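Example record used in the benchmark description.
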Amino acid sequence: MRYLERSILLQVIDNRWREHLFDMDYLREGIHLRGFAQIDPLVAYKNEGFSMFEELMHAVWEEFSKLIFHAQIEIDPSQLDRSFAGNGGGGGIALDYSGGTPEAQPSALQEVASGSTTVGVGGAAPNGENVAAAPEVVETVVKDEKVRDIGRNDPCWCGSGKKFKKCHGA
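Model output (structure tokens):
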């Protein structure tokens, strides 16, 4: 089943991605006309490209769910492994869904509700060992001294040739 899901999803993504690239190319060819309407073409391209990508993602999941729920699998009886065959061969796949009762299944919620164990910071685990408190992680931020000396319109310190505001100043 996982192989089927993976195959269908990759096929859907491949087809939809190609369509999306053609649509983005078509958008790029006509985006310069937005300048006549006093709209920044770059901003319009970003906004419309993002909305087209959202539509792509929704279309991928919609088509995938439609295909996966309508898939019909045919199994050739001659290729069935004997371990999956029913009683003696060719009778189909026998599955056993029997399970224990809810009372027989261990549950941490039931243990806590009954008050038999206490688990917490510095508390005792169910097997009687002490649980150590987790150390807090402190994040250290180091300021770069070069950044303070560079103006927004100066060349960037990394040597990219761009202005600082377009490279590392963002």
